[in-house]
Batch of 2 targets.
Target 1
Amino acid sequence: MEATELDREKTAPKRLGVVDCDIHPAFENPQELGKYLPQRWRDHIRDYALRTPNPFLGAMTYPRMTPGNGMRRDSWPPSGKPPASDLGFLCEQLLEQCNIEHGILQPLAAGAVTNNQDLGAALCVGINDWQIDKFAGPEPRLRASICVAQEDATEAVAEIDRRAHDRRFVQVSIPPRTIEPIGRRRYWPIFEAAEHYGLPIGLHTGAFGQRPNTPSGWSSFYLEEHYAASNSLQTVIVSMIMEGVFERFPKLKIVVVEGGFSWVPSLAWRMDREWKRMGGEVPQVKRKPSEYLRDHFWFTTQPIEEPEENRHLADLVRWIGADRLMFSTDYPHWDFDDPRFAFRTPLDPDDRAKIFRENAMALFRLDHR
Amino acid sequence: MSDTLDRPRAMITAGAIDTDVHPPLPRQADLLPYLDPYWAETFQSRDVDVLELMSFPERTKPYRRADWQGEGDALVAMQKDLLDPLQLGQAILNVVSGAHALFDPYLQLAVCRATNDWLADQWLSRDDRLRASILVPFSNVAGAVQEIERLAGDKRFVQILTLAAGELPLGRQSYWPIFEAAEKHGLPIGIHAGSMLRHAPSHSGYHSFLIEDHIAMTHGFATQIASLIAEGVFAKYPALKVVAIESGVSWVPPLMWRMSKDWRGTRVEVPWVKDSPAALIRKHVRLTSQPFDAPEDPSEVETMLSHLLSDDMLLFSSDYPHCHYEGLDVLPRGVPEAMLQKAMRANALATYPRLGG
């Protein structure tokens, strides 16, 4: 009986026009980013390589399950270029087929997690130029993220200052696996700049970081790694709330990208319970932690958790709030969520519209150019 | 469905099995009678005394209820505060010892052995309602197996204790001899809140505040269970049970959903995992009831618990003497009557075969 209801709802997003909050543009070839870098850094990478905390150069510590480091098998364009590097094919396979009205680019290139911080800052500048040049410039449905290397807050703020006037950029992007908990004051200049320009900060789940992916060290399998990465987003939320970030920056908005969301209610209950018994440790937290969570955080939906009983997903939407979830596909990755089939739970049409479109339209001010 | 708040508490807890009760950490003087001369000399010369975990600091306010700070005999206090008024049938003692975090594998074994003997002598022998978890050195697997075998004949020891965050993910093959001995003797593995801090508690290093360590402890539980599943521990030891102690409960359905979905896409990586992680968690993992991370509205608690799709998983616990509730208001609000009834006793008996006799 539930199945018939679901089938009927599959057609709904088509008419609405979907906003996809997580699209990963790719370089045509390993040399492409170099064109957007000063000669000094091109030579540096050639001579000394691009060093990150990853134990390998150019290989994954947890090999992905599909070719191209975890791409959809059907996402290679006819041109033979890598998935999501060919704008024409990206428009056809994603924007047209899935009725995406706006898509937010989330570059995953190694700017912010580069060990050499000056190189990281230069990479971010290059990545930001490239997003406009290759994607958001020629294709008005696509919007870009201001990538910054967050460990050097001064440089990060300078880059935000350079880009904020360009409305094709709709958020600041930093990885959640910061070297210190992200609520620490060393990162506050970035929050100040983002709040000043009214730009949300998007924190996209990251495979690489300087710390083990579990508090018991490194897991053995990709199955575990893929789960454990979502915990880094919980750390972001807890750290920002407990350090008092939102008391200082009351208009700051945070988007948790590709962390899933099923854990959000449990985290809210847990934070409130612990705050009730030991709030005295954190006098900068003036309100219940769940209130900051409710006011300041948005969540993209992919990889959407799939309860064994679909209706349980509706409980999560009720607990989190339909106004805080934003649909995303994660194109062109293997665990892509298709807006025509994802979110297998009966949803109120208004809530559906919010999740698939309206929340992101409002948060990113996508009606403005 | 109504909960049981308006019923006399004693009617519900009478005869119940409390799966998480804490004696105070033993001091050097407590352990000396159970050490051989070499270790007794070592403890005294090298000042091996109370081993209190930074991640589970029993001296701090959240761990000490003002009205449960009686002077004198801690067992008498426990009887007066908890066992007698709730008319408990049995209670399992968990010593959350820093022994786990010692680097010297032989010292680790010495502290575990002495603590186990102290428990048997000073606690179990003085109140026949009490049972205990065995401390074993996970950094010294041969020693751990030896210690399990040494105590296996004493049915008052009902579980093997470890921490939510250790040296290596818990499912690693190097630990399997411990699981083999545990399964053989009907001893569940109790994963208790706490970290050895061998690694940072978060992907972004060390937190500023204790409250953050507490909140993040679910990452430890979840990744330990993910490791046990992914490494194939439950395929190899199908009778093994794991109890997440002081874990908060509601983090479990999200782990089930995400890991089951990921497993569908990655099972070629772990071909020994034949059942979905959600099914494995329901079969092998049990959860103590305090603390309890739940919606404020008790009517939503039943919904939250229904996401487990199981009424076998919840085990009653008081977490005595930590601060979670007022007075003896030990039962989480909103737990449906039938689930609560099973949690009080039947689920524990099914989890801990040695409790039955």
Target 2
Amino acid sequence: MKISIERGTLLKAVAQAQSVVERRNTIPILANVLIEAEGDQVQFRATDLDIEVVDKAPAQVERAGATTVAATTLHEIVRKLPDGALVTLNADSAAGRLTVEAGRSNFSLATLPREDFPVMASSEYQSNFSANAAVLRRLFDKSKFAISTEETRYYLNGVYMHVSDGEDGKVLRCVATDGHRLARIDADLPAGVADMPGVIVPRKTVGELRKLLDDDEMDIAVSVSETKIRFATPDIVLTSKVIDGTFPDYTRVIPMGNTRRLEVDATEFAQAVDRVATVSSERSRAVKLQLEEDRLILSVNAPDSGAAEEELAVAYGDERLEIGFNAKYLLEIASQVDRENAVFMFNSSGDPTLMREGNDQSAVYVVMPMRV
Amino acid sequence: MPAFCRDCLTIQANQPRCTNCGSPRMKAHDELFDLSVAHMDCDAFYASVEKRDNPELAAKPVIIGGGKRGVVSTACYVARIRGVRSAMPMFQALKLCPDAVVIKPRMSAYAEVSRQIRAMMEELTPAIEPLSLDEAFMDLSGTRKLHGAPPAVMLARLVKRMKDELGVTGSIGLSHNKFLAKVASDLDKPRGFSVIGKAETADFLFDKPVRLIWGIGPAAQESLDRAGIRTFSDLLRWDRRDLGARFGQMGDRLWHLARGEDRRRVSANSPMKSISNETTFFEDTGNADILDGHLWRMAEKVADRAKAKSLAGRVVTLKLKRANHATLTRRQSLRDATQMADTIYRVARALMDQLGDQGPYRLLGCGISDLVPEAQADLSGDLLDPGAQQRAKAERATDAIREKFGSDAILKGRALR
């Protein structure tokens, strides 16, 4: 194999590959990216056995062929080459080497045979639909902060994407929770989704997917089966196993009956929470909210390090209420609000609290209070 | 050379026998009256207490340990002559020494003697760091004027009092830091008094194996072996940075220890790092119900101790030992620290379920670590487990009942498995 490719194009493809390969792994080939050249394009394939990403790029192919080489090393080299350079990759299968040439730089890298590279088995997809990149971006961006990292509840280590009943008919819904907070984000149902099985998309896949969603105009082809999900743009195909588990029944967790309503400017609220939380030395960083008519007092009292208090003008007309939260959780949900005021719906100081943006029911957050 | 008699405690010139009482137990060393960091280790402590309380046992081999399945926790010196060692499986110990008297540990009796020893140590110095019931570090720096005698004499007086008043013997290691004091106390057991002075530190360590270092277990030993480090002289050849790069934090410590340096202070209140409990089964089992019962009882014991100390843990650990003695440990960090048996049990149970069926097992244990004060624990509930708050309330109520009517007053069905 011998190809010449523009440095920027190569960097983009190799960057995607190296973020998929597992940093620490015991199987050498899994650290490699498979490079296949044919016609006038080259294809980069990387996998950690759970996720596979295939990236196509235009290139001058002098000699078709394929090889595999360490993804992180190749990425580091290409990253350090000057912008605009033309890079030549030349595989010598007899010597087991790949030479990388750009200008006066010359590298020779060890390769492993392409036959050893594991290719993810293709599967039958039950549901195929097309979704706008901006829609998918909103669904995952607004839910991913709530993904759990707890390994014992592995079925929470991803975003549950499924079809559900919204206010006005069926919606495409993403839910994530770690037991302390929960995000439920809805989008209009794209055509062809109706028979999609509900799947839990793993955290790492959500991160990799994000790189495909920067272009608002782009349509993403989504394919879903019980065990796999695939996202495809004309250049990149991301295939991932989904988490084999049952997502818990989240509907009973969402406190739709809460009646005490607080409306507050989300930015002001977040800044105030951030300020008062500064004095807290504990890792849990509890912030106390004291609510009375049109007044919210945020306070932190950390006996070892200090105390802080800040008052905000808010819209609140219910009985007095004192309730505590983890400052980080409050900041995370408040930062999801970008257009209107944040509306909090409380019940008591021991019950889950609901937050949404204005009256928008398409993005709902739940956060568990803590003892203060 | 400074010297004194370990029986009548008089300071005198060094000679084979004491000029005062005629005892041969003289101690002499160039730095004897300058060193002040000591380690006191009781001799076969549990067995000594048993022999004291039952003089008939005096000449018999005595083994303290649990049941036929357990391991030897302490063997008296008579049993040790026959090859019995602590941590040896009981069946093996009984093979070596079939006429041994096996006694189940009476922890409360040992704790009582330990308290009495502690009171005696407190008369010497406030800087005491107990490592267990029967051993402790003491720093006697600057006490010479107060006591009117150098630390060495006061330490000899301590072990003499322990023997005269409590009927247990101990060995003293005296040196210029904790590491060497601990090594020294082990050199001349029982009723030993060993000194490692600054001048001979390097020579003393030179050909000693690195496993002498307290805290170097089989795993660390193996990684040191791979690096070709067996003795302190091997360690001395290593550059400080290389050791750090290869062994991390331990590397820097090793570099200092190789030079006989140990800056750790004898600290009276070294904070507790973890609370755990384990049990060896009467017979190996892979039965999920039986394991579940054991797990609950262990979780409850851990929770009881955490509550008694007003502590909670952010990490739950599960430990299982398979029939072939291979140990499996798994840990899970929690968002919210806990001291509740219910939470510890549930997390440990999930860890056990993840292990799958690797039994039969011979031992099960669980514990909590990364400890915080209880005021920072169990602060928030779990959205997906609304019953947790109810169960926590039930557990607090159970605790109150047991406080009032005894620990057997109320039990979970699962505890009877």
